[in-house]
């Protein structure tokens, strides 16, 4: 019996993946030294593994997340740094206790004249009208409170998944309120819908969701959320 | 002083952005469908974002994300199963600009062969070969015993070799012989 017949394929695969103990590795090295067929077989296994690696070395066309065009005036470096440190910190501390039905830890203290501008991104991933109404209430309170009497707070509301229905021209129960908020705080609130979700709903359910005219489309809602958080925005999910 | 929690949360956000291309690459290797791969990546990141505060050990982030994506894929596969048996797919000849060079042709052939593998074998193979997860980590991500990972991987590579050499039967990989030596220890 040749060496190749004594060793299972599972063991040889574990050998090329460096998953064996030193003793087992040594046994296979010894067997390979005596058996050309075994050496060729191990070589084939490695070649197969390497082919798989090389075939996916470059991902095919990963879509680049498209960012929202900014509707806000640029602010200075100092404000950005202040927002990243103080705003981000308060946001993180508020996050675990925040609930749409409870008085917001976020809104409390917004009228403090010494506080920096607050930037909050609300994330609607569920079609939950009650929770969304609370979001709109929170947003309105934030926008009405001008920190230090100078700079208005900024709010973005990003919807994806089932939450997209809340911004749909056909199904949203908040059409008038969204229009009113947008008109009243045009430079300080943005409603954004996820294009990925929209495409998926079209593909999987045959549904064509038309968003409200106030809603901007972003390529990926989740990437928008990640990037805003990276910039120091506070994240509030429902 | 910046609290540990804030530093940690920032780190998670940064890592999620960095890992997105890897998630997409593996999702594409699982599905060979760009739109579906984007959806899976997207769903995984959404769920990770929502559950990030439950992650206790940052070292486990990668495996945790791939576990989420495995579950997303499983959910999607369940929805598809009644109409589309993915394991019955034959090699698909995708005519794309990639076919214009020999190297691209090889890439296309390998991807087609990977696509022809059963779903469970394809997932195991890509987690080990593309992402470099250990057998133990792969078992944890897929929720199966280590022995299952080993047998799936062995059969996946054997079948791939068969598909790529074409002259040999598909299941030409040497089956495990019950009389042969077994692995005693896994690192």
Summed up, the helix count of chain B is 7
CATH-level-4 superfamily name of the largest domain in chain A = DsrEFH-like
Q: How far apart lie the N and C ends of chain B?
A: 41 Å
Model regions low in confidence, pLDDT < 50 over at least 5 residues of chain B: 1-6, 82-99, 167-185
Helix content of chain B: 55-70%
Q: Quick one: how many beta strands of chain A? A: 7
Largest interface, and how many residues on either side? A-B, 60 and 61 residues
Radius of gyration of chain B: 19 Å
CATH superfamily of the largest domain in chain B: RNA polymerase sigma factor, region 2, helix turn helix motif
Q: What is the name of the CATH architecture of the largest domain in chain B?
A: Orthogonal Bundle
Uncertain spans of chain A, ≥5 residues at pLDDT below 50?
64-114
**Whole-Å distance between the termini of chain A?**
66 Å
Please compute the radius of gyration of chain A using only Cα atoms: 28 Å
Mean pLDDT of chain A: 75
Helix-strand sequence of chain B: HHHHHHH
CATH topology of the largest domain in chain B: Rna Polymerase Sigma Factor, Chain: A
Oligomer: heterodimer
Report the sheet-strand fraction of chain B: under 5%
**Per CATH, what is the topology of the largest domain in chain A?**
Hypothetical Protein Ychn, Chain: A
Mean pLDDT of chain B equals 75
Describe the structure.
- The complex is a heterodimer of chains A (238) and B (187).
- Chain A has 238 residues and is an alpha/beta fold.
- Chain A folds into 2 domains: 3-55, no CATH class; 77-237, Hypothetical Protein Ychn, Chain: A (3-Layer(aba) Sandwich).
- Helices cover 45% and strands 13% of the residues of chain A.
- Chain A has helices at 9-16, 22-34, 36-55, 77-94, 129-144, 175-184, 195-205, 221-230; strands at 119-124, 146-147, 151-152, 154-159, 189-194, 215-218, 234-237.
- In chain A, the strands form 2 sheets. In chain A, strands 6-5-4-1-7 form a 5-stranded parallel β-sheet, with helices on both faces.
- In chain A, a hairpin with a 3-residue loop joins strand 2 and strand 3 (151-152).
- Chain B has 2 domains: 1-82, Rna Polymerase Sigma Factor, Chain: A (Orthogonal Bundle); 99-176, Orthogonal Bundle (Arc Repressor Mutant, subunit A).
- Chain B is built from 7 helices and no strands.
- Chain B has helices at 4-31, 34-51, 61-81, 102-115, 119-129, 135-142, 146-165.
- In chain B, helix 6 (135-142) crosses helix 7.
- Chain B is globular and about 50 Å long.
